[in-house]
Design brief:
The complex is a heterodimer of chains A (119) and B (143). By secondary structure, chain A is of the alpha+beta class. Chain A has a single domain (3-88), classed as Beta-grasp domain (Ubiquitin-like (UB roll)). Chain A has three helices and six strands, in the order ββααββββα. Chain A has helices at residues 28-38, 42-46, 95-115, and strands at residues 3-6, 20-23, 57-61, 64-65, 81-86, 89-90. A five-stranded mixed sheet of chain A has the order 2-1-5-3-4, with helices on one face. The relative contact order of chain A is 0.17. With 143 residues, chain B is α/β, with parallel strands linked by helices. Chain B has a single domain (4-137), classed as 3-Layer(aba) Sandwich (Cytidine Deaminase, domain 2), CATH 3.40.140. Chain B has three helices and eight strands; from the N terminus they run E-H-E-E-E-H-E-H-E-E-E. The radius of gyration of chain B is 14 Å and the shape is globular. Classes of the chains: A alpha+beta (119), B alpha/beta (143). The interface between A and B is medium-sized, with 28 and 35 residues.
Chain lengths: 119, 143
């Protein structure tokens, strides 16, 4: 059971510089636990202390943003390809306000996804 | 790591035009270049998914497509740019918190003045901001 995971530059210090690593798990959350066992500390960069997906990263299963797939509950299968990218965001707005704004985004995205007939 | 950003004037002009076009909302985008070259070569204006005057965010699906395209072309994001539309061209705390490409030049354009632009470039690594010079060149473009 192998799932290929593409690691962005900023997180390669956890993978000994490797751009692609392999992991296992039947959900995103299980995969992240498996990766953290091999690459200690990686989980803390992907998941907040409260247990949600970190807003500073985007995680994709094949061609889909995991926020559309149930986030940490997203189901994975052997042969899936995971891509992790740093979210590119910022702006003049104060950080607290920006965090609050971003905190609303996952639900906005889900609403958009469920309204789309093309899926 | 270089402490200067060398960039073609045509690309700078296009970034400023993008910022002006989207004003008063913030504009954002990437300039890709060959891996390791430190040369911004291919301008990719991105949608600001936040469509905000004080915040920008790449659309996650557009970002995946563009990052894959760069991978396929052996390119990397040499410059990540955005505009501030009412404040100076200096990274905000939000910019610093989100800066996730330690190898990129973070280019900021302020469009708060209608008749002139402030353009500044920074490295943002582990929360530390270092301003750098911008060397704007007129490249000889091969036909």
């Amino acid at each position: 059971m192998a799932i290929e995971v593409r690691i962005p530059t900023i997180l390669r210090s956890y993978t000994g510089g490797a751009k692609i690593v392999e992991g296992a798990g039947d959900s995103l959350s299980a995969l992240i636990d498996d990766l953290d066992a091999k690459h200690n500390g990686l989980k803390g960069r992907l998941i907040t202390p409260e247990g949600g997906l970190h807003r500073f990263v985007n995680i994709y299963v094949n061609d889909e943003d995991v926020r559309f797939l149930g986030a940490l509950d997203a189901k994975l299968s052997d042969g899936d390809s995971i891509t992790i990218l740093p979210a590119v965001a910022g702006g003049a707005l104060g950080f607290a306000a920006a965090a609050a704004l971003l905190g609303r985004h996952p639900s906005n995205r889900l609403a958009t996804a469920s309204n789309s007939t093309e899926g | 790591m270089n402490d200067v950003l060398t960039i073609d004037s045509a690309i700078v002009d296009a970034i400023v035009a993008h910022a002006r076009r989207d004003h008063p909302d913030e504009a954002c985008g990437v300039v890709a270049g060959p891996i390791g070259s430190d040369l911004p070569a291919r301008l990719i204006p991105m949608d600001n998914a936040a469509r905000s005057m004080t915040f920008y965010e790449f659309d996650s699906m557009e970002q995946l497509r563009v990052w894959r395209e760069m991978d396929d072309n052996d390119e990397e994001p040499v410059v990540i740019y955005h505009s501030h539309t009412a404040t100076e061209a200096y990274p905000s705390r939000t910019d610093i918190s989100f800066a996730g490409e330690p190898g990129a030049h973070y280019l900021l354009v302020s469009t708060r003045e209608s008749d002139s632009e402030e353009i500044r470039s920074f490295r943002i690594v582990d929360g530390v901001v270092t301003e750098e010079e911008i060397n704007i060149v007129d490249a000889t473009v091969d036909a």
